[in-house]
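Review form for a predicted model. The reviewer records the input and the model, then writes brief findings.
Reviewer: anonymous (R2)
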Amino acid sequence: MGVAGLVTGAGAPVTVAAHGLGASLAETRPLLGGVTGTKVLYEARGHGAAPLPAGAFDYGVLAEDLEQVAEEHGATRALGVSMGAGALLSLLARRADRFERVVLFLPAAIDRPRTDEAVRRVAALAAALDAGDAAQVEQHVLEELPLDLHGEPAVAAYVRTRASYLLTCPGVAVALRALPQVTPVEDRSRLAAVTADVLLLAQEGDPLHPAQVARDLAAVLPRARLVVFAQPGVVFRERARLRAEISGFLNGESLNA
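Model under review:
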């Protein structure tokens, strides 16, 4: 299963965080800044010290790991980023009442396999990782970000750090090839039974995480609030607002606020 890598804070409520594909705990932790209670961050399969599954790598495996970590820590709230959002959706399709509050940041798929340009891009990144080509890996990470941010010092530091992390996680290449071929849920209509309050966070112009996916989820989840940022790169452009949206919601802000 995944490895519980970091537990911060104390007391209730307990929030479990499922990171994105190729993301580290250090990258995910700032999203929970301002969230009260206990925060549990764990490394997903193929990341850091977490082993690959013995069989197929899919959202069902990730959901089972998420469920186990949540049960161990008594989590009632959850944050999922990209791949982590897919794991959360897979778990909620099976256990609609598992969480009280859920944040889905940059969901990338629901019940249809990806067939767009993003699939080619992740396959190229997987090939660069297999080859151990650090320069190519850095270039692929940079190309995930909007062109106008490429000259920012914070972006350059992020690219170096993320590329270095990716090169230490051989399981990420397996996930990059496997996940575009599968879906978090078989039928999105199953999500209509979800009882949790859900905050959906998306950004326009992001080919890896189309904002339409979040809009489609808002249409099926019965207790959802949708926030779509106007430009991609929200983690760099609007970090304070992003964190405020997440912490305000997880700390109990009204869904209609």
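Findings: The chain has ten helices and seven strands.
Further findings: The chain has a mean pLDDT of 93.
Recommendation: see findings above.
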